[in-house]
Amino acid sequence: MEIVRSQRNLTADGPPSLSLYRSAPSLEVRLEDFELYAIDRLRVLKGISDGISRGKKPEEMEKLVSELWRANMRHQDASEVTNKDMISHFVLRLVYCRTEDLRKWFLSMETTLFRYRFRLESPESQRMLMAEFQLPYKALSNAEFETVKDKLGQVARSIGQSSNAETIFFKVPFEEVPELVASRRVFLLKGYAYVAMNQVVSLVVTQFRSNLSKALVLTNRKWTSTIREQEKERLTPIVEALSNSYLGPDYSQPKEFAEISLKDIDQLASNSFPLCMRHLFEKLREDHHLRHGGRMQLGLFLKGVGLKLDDALAFWKMEFSQKVGTERFDKEYAYTIRHNYGKEGKRTDYTPYSCHKIISSTPGVGDHHGCPYRHFSEENLRAALGKIGVGSRALDDVMDKVRNRHYQLACTLTFEAIHAASCDTGINHPNHYFSESQKILKSRIQPTT
Amino acid sequence: MTKEEVLVERDDMQIDGGGPDSRQVRADPAGFSADYLKIYYGKLFPCADIYKWLSYGNDGKHPACDHSYIGRREFSFTLEHDIYVRFQSFNNANEMENAIKEKCPFKIDIGPVYSVDPAKRHAYAQAGNNVFTPVERELIFDIDMSDYDDVRYCCSGADVCLDCWPLMTIAIKVMDRALRDDFGFNHILWAYSGRRGVHCWVCDGRARRLSNEQRSSIADYLRVYKGGENNSKKVNLTGPVLHPFLARTYTDVLRGFFEEKLLCSQKLLASEERCQKILELIPDESIAAELLDRWQGNRRSSISKEDVNIARWEQLKHILQSGKQKAQGLRRCVEEIVFSYTYPRLDMEVSKHMNHLLKAPFCVHPKTGRVCVPIDPDNCGDFDPTTVPTLSELLEELNMSRTRAEPENEWERTSLGKSIRFFRSSFLHPLLKSCKEEMESSYNAKLQQSRNSLSW
Hints:
The structure holds 2 protein chains of 2 kinds.
Chain A: H1 31-53, H2 58-72, H3 80-96, H4 100-120, H5 123-133, H6 142-158, E1 169-173, H7 178-182, E2 187-189, E3 192-196, H8 200-230, H9 235-247, H10 265-272, H11 275-287, H12 292-305, H13 309-324, H14 326-340, H15 355-359, H16 372-375, H17 378-387, H18 392-403, H19 407-419, H20 430-445
Antiparallel strand pairs in A: 1-3, 2-3
Chain B: H1 3-7, E1 24-25, H2 34-43, H3 47-55, E2 73-79, E3 83-88, H4 93-103, E4 107-114, H5 121-125, E5 134-136, E6 139-144, E7 160-161, H6 166-182, E8 188-192, E9 197-202, H7 205-208, H8 212-222, H9 244-265, H10 272-279, H11 285-296, H12 300-303, H13 308-321, H14 328-331, H15 333-342, H16 348-352, E10 358-359, E11 374-375, H17 391-400, H18 417-455
Antiparallel strand pairs in B: 1-7, 2-3, 2-4, 4-5, 4-10, 6-9, 8-9, 8-11
């Protein structure tokens, strides 16, 4: 990587504290530290995960990440700080390499962590990190800059930044900066994206992500072929325990309220379904139809709640047959329902959608799925909340959270308003909403003695 | 007098005669049958061309050819009575042609290229971890007229006519330009979906190798219209200026189509209900009320010479763009209305993932009997879905010219000939030429590399 317009000079800044985690450290690690460091890092990653699903903005995330890092990754011995970072990262690689879902979660959280730590570095150490990645991009020459100057300025203004003639730009294949492309934050010409110096974090993050993704697959291979067996007595139990404790339940198997039956379903929908599911449920009863996204979101939720396959088929058939006829239902729709229960196709038992997934979905024309707090207009949301009995004061609180993009907190407040009870854990999964609601309602029917 | 009566523009002249409109694409069950289809696949369907296309040069003799390539591509057939047969694969052009002729699928879908032969996926499943996974796929787009039902008043659902078809013309113009100029793609195939929309296949090597994340980023770049039934404002243009792509799209395509075509052909401001729908997009209620007031008032005399839609639109623009409205939200409002009524609406899920199936070009739509012919993006304004050849027309043309027997190129004698010639000259031949060059240069690079490593 070449930097044209600025001379590198190594100042008192020193080397960046941020590591690219290229290779595992050859250190002696005490077994307690092995576990403790990993738990501390998990707290950071878990905090990041919560921040993302609350829809925090980049500036808020930056603050959150630096707070989480300071709170959990300190060490009384300053020289240990870097080691703790390295060790905890590599331990968690072992923990999270073992299934596709674990890898995906870890990759996403570590990448986010890296992104915000990179942003906190000084420009000088940012450049050093770029050099360390050996990114093959050259800064735009002055001649080339002149030909696209106007467009670059237009893009800068379109995202509310002032265009600055001093900014260095890099011309890179658009594939390298998907997030900048997706949000139209770069100028694109003939397959190249023009990335400003203050956007290079996207470039570096893409690189970081792809390196880590490859590394995780390799780690997994090593784990299954040798480490698991070798460390059977020592590390394996720790590693296995670590991965279970923090991801939270995925609600793929209904546990607490083992089964629900069709005759109770309307009652349950109005008492214990979160707004997103209740809306889908009511639309289905009303229109006798839901589009694909809605069928998936509601269908998997019902599975998680404990609706058995036969009942699910009966339930969907009862509605859809009124619109499309029994024959078309059997032919076109029954398959996906069985598929969701792992009875068709590749026979995966699909897990119900989490809030994170629902919030980040993109409902189109005619769609009713998604998160009402995120995807409804203010007017429609107010009406929907009023209808389910949220009083006006609580309603204002909910709308306040929505405006600040705290969708899950808005949902939690709704829960509290309807149940007249507090929900300290917050809502992070529609099925979690359901089980919390059932707990409260059941305890009221049978007061504990 | 009710408001409605004031607002409705009286059309004393009948525009169309009564009865079913021949200029509309509607279901025509009579034009399609399994027997017809058999003849179509036997004599007209350009199977060899499709095979050539999807081989991307790997069916040649060059040492860099990957002979397993086409055999790892998924084809999916929909047989009569909606029987789906997925994960078909073919190792050569003959296998493919025979399977199609024998099974006579009502629909042929093309899926991704997998890591292994999809027909043998179960054999690999035991081996564990994700061996069977998509590795290559064209970047595809699917645009469906039924997604525009809130902005067209001529037809709805699966029907299309020449009054709403310009919405598809806009989509092709906007997307084709962005895919070429912004993303640098060259080998793009547009095809009529046979009924109510268009499909787009981006076939450059670079496009085929995109990851799902990269596909999503392109789809998001191109997406402005955000649907969702519970969200009333579907287009939000923020920031002090528009991104160059949006600015260019607005001035070069959208504005012209909106003002010169759709405004009048769809009568977008001709009734109170329609006016209200547009006024809802203006965030300032007092301005919306002022406009409504004007449109309801007795100012007919001043605008009587002009079309009422144009006159009202001019008034709206005048108020919103006058110097008084400095607030940014309002200045953008005219553009937001135009984007809402014209900007392409993509089916995002189709483009975001490698493993979505898409109907092959030159299939026949079972409901309309029309062939999914390619559309020339440079002349897409001339494309007329109501004159696309249908299965029964094509067979009639074959019968008419029985005399000359040239079994090889029977399509030459039918109205499908033009489409096949276009497919070859504008898409297939340039594509194969660049596949060959790409293959050559990567082979030479590899050769060079191994020479270098030997000399060490």
